[in-house]
Amino acid sequence: MSTQRERAAHTRRNDPADLMALVRRLYPICRSITGDGVRETFDVLAESIPLQRHEIESGTPVFDWEIPREWNIRDAWIRDEQGRVILQFSDHNLHVVSYSAPVHRVVTREELCRHVFTLPDHPAWIPYRTSYYAESWGFCMAHERLAALPEGRYEVMIDSTLEPGALTLAECIIPGESDEEVLLSTHVCHPSMCNDNLSGVAVLTGLCQWLAGRRNRLSYRAVFVPGTIGALAWLHLRRRGLYQIGAVLVLCGLGDAGAFTYKRSRAGDAEIDRIAAAAVQASECGGDVRAFTPYGYDERQYCAPGIDLPVGRLTRTPYGEYPEYHTSADNLDFVSEAQLQGALALCRRIVEDLESNRRWIATCPYGEPRLGKYELYDNRSGGGPDADQLALLWVLNLADGRHTLVDMAERSTVPMATLAHAAERLHEAGLLRPARTGESLRPLSVE
Ligand code: ZN
Predict the structure, then answer these.
(1) Of 152, 310, 312, 356, whose CB neighbour count within 10 A is largest?
(2) CA of 132 to the centre of ligand 1 (A)
(3) Residue 260 C-alpha to ligand 1 middle, in angstroms?
(4) Alpha helices in 64-197 (DSSP H)
(5) Per-residue confidence band for 383, with pLDDT thresholds at 50, 70 and 90
């Protein structure tokens, strides 16, 4: 575990977070659900944030699954009969189907076409395809290039290995005053696409840097996992500690130009739902809040019935709803620093609201306290109270130990940040104290 000083050094070195620089560095790396691409990615992230890595051996059972053999690739190409290069893996990581078995042989054009994936509707783009759990080999290329290939024989070569090894995942743990944890998760298994998944990796890294540089009430655990099998492996690894997790946020697809979309947890009204939905709806570009469905990213694993963590998912445009999704057009031009920073700012807002979402007990509850005594009364207000005064009154009124700050925000329609500031002022003035677990204010008649 890193010390406070190490974390502070990490933060200084990278302040302010240049998220596009990180995306640019990670873009050329060929990631998959296992292999050296994921390790290399973690090497880069570890320059900015403290990372604990875990290697889980191939063949290890995780719930109904098993860690697969490790996949690595060095080279691949297609050549025509004259030896001219038709496709070269070093030109684009998407050119080879992820988890392709090694192959080196001569095939007819017809057989080649059975192993090549293209996008006829977007003839210049390369699609992204995987074959994790059914051994095969394949290439992906621009449809216009395949269409231009004449009849004849083609030499195909994929220099890959599928061998016993390990699945690599990483955690960044930022302890707070309380053991209660917020789990932040993003997937790290995609090669050379920026919105899916490098935007999630970059925003979560920036969020960890920011969290590490401040004092937090809650503890934070960011997990960088290969999709599905990595999330399952992490759940299996940490299955005894899941009870400490009070909120989960899955992050990905945060770099495109679309507005934000929040997908609710299975319960639909968990603390994270109420806070994130309000933050998304109040965001500058507006936002969409959607009901839970059992499909999607790794929220599928975190909310499985025997796990049942309160998990929401934050994206901009959801996967599959933009044509560049899972293609070579999800490139460095598809995302921008401003869009990534906008997502990071929204994540910070959600974290700040989680941090301030506590119950308070008024120390002077029998009638309103005389705010002038505490320099909290605004003598200038001739008419009704201004927004800050009203926030003080709402917090004082609902500080009975039964209302969290998000309860107060929903009831008052005052933003959580305004109520949090009011609560802080009242706390400093000695008019509030944090409620103990299960504690609520007793009426005067039973004192
Ligand atoms: Zn994806």
Answers:
(1) 312
(2) 13
(3) 17
(4) 109-114, 143-147
(5) confident
Ligand 1 centre to CA of 302 (Å) is 17
How many angstroms does the Cα of residue 88 sit away from the middle of ligand 1? 23
Longest dimension (CA), the chain: 96
Whole-number Å distance, alpha carbon 199 to ligand 1 midpoint, is: 12
Centre of ligand 1 from the C-alpha of residue 326, in Å: 6
Domain ranges of the chain: 4-67+166-356, 72-163, 359-446
Q: How far is the centre of ligand 1, averaged over its atoms, from the C-alpha of 175 (Å)? A: 30
C-alpha 161 to ligand 1 mean position (Å): 23
CATH number, domain 72-163: 3.50.30.90
| Domain 4-67+166-356 CATH superfamily | Zn peptidases (3.40.630.10)
What Cα–Cα distance (Å) separates residue 45 from each residue in 38, 278, 342? Answer: 11, 31, 20
Q: List strand residue ranges (DSSP E) for 149-282, in order.
A: 153-163, 166-174, 181-187, 219-225, 245-251, 260-263
Average pLDDT of every residue of the chain: 94
The pTM for the full model equals 0.94
For residue 410, is it left (φ>0), alpha (ψ between -120 and 50) or beta? alpha
The top-level CATH class assigned to 359-446 is mainly alpha
